[in-house]
Amino acid sequence: MAVAADYIVETRDLTKEFKGFTAVSGVSLRVRRHSIHALIGPNGAGKTTCFNLLTKFLVPTSGRIFFNQRDITHAQPAAVARLGMVRSFQISAVFSHLSVLENVRVALQRRRGGYFHFWRSDRILDQLNDQVMDLLQSVGMTGDVHRLAGELSYGRKRALEIATTLALDPEMLLLDEPMAGMSSEDVLLIAALIRRISANRTILMVEHNLNVVAELSDRISVLKQGRILAEGTYQEVSNNPEVVEAYMGSPDD
Predict the structure, then answer these.
(1) Taking the domains of the chain in order of start, what are their residue ranges?
(2) How far is CA 9 from CA 75, 86, 101, 128, in A?
(3) What confidence tens digit (pLDDT) does each residue in 114-143 have?
(4) Is 1-84+170-253 a CATH 3.30.450.20 domain?
(5) Collapsing DSSP states into helix, strand and coil, what is residue 76?
(6) What number is the average pLDDT over the span 58-62?
(7) Which tens digit of pLDDT belongs to each residue from 165-185?
(8) Distance of CA 187 to CAs 45, 71, 141, 192, Å?
(9) 29: Cβ–Cβ under 8 A, 6 or more apart, which residues?
């Protein structure tokens, strides 16, 4: 059976076991191209394990993964990133001792083949600056270009991390709890940023903030104990009695 072209990612019966414990069990997920798709569920539901399987940080016990109709089940993480699926992690990962501009330049050098020319002259590295400024403009950070990354607020660090991820020119971006640990002001900042950058790419995100999920998501998959419990729009899944019970517990609990 051919993979539908409308879907950028599809998994078929994806399963991951750890020494007898099944973290992900028979997950068949479809992510529509140019959409924002949220993966939600209680703690321990298997969301991060799914992310690790998709980006090849884990090898599935069984099942298959397709990206752009290509079977990537046994591909290496770097190969998947080169194909256009890139992950941003829950914890901000920037070089605190480098400026905002330098952080994005490092990412651009990586896209050019993985060689980091720190010893090259400023004149050579400055050739990347137009691209850096375009990326910083896309995340609203042109005013921070010369600040050290370590001086930024948590929300701005996450915006910078997204800029460095975009430097790899991904077709699909996986965001692991992008709002984790943020103030309400930073949540608004990053939510607006995610909406803006989704215009020409696909986003799959794990997120616990259900207000953000409701605002941003085109479609939602709810996991419980490693299985897909429900799928649909926010209104559909939030009115699903099984989803309500998974989050709130049954009246007898």
Answers:
(1) 1-84+170-253, 94-169
(2) 14, 13, 32, 32
(3) 444 444 445 556 677 888 898 898 888 999
(4) no
(5) coil
(6) 95
(7) 888 888 999 998 888 888 888
(8) 23, 35, 16, 8
(9) 9, 10, 11, 14, 39, 50, 221, 228
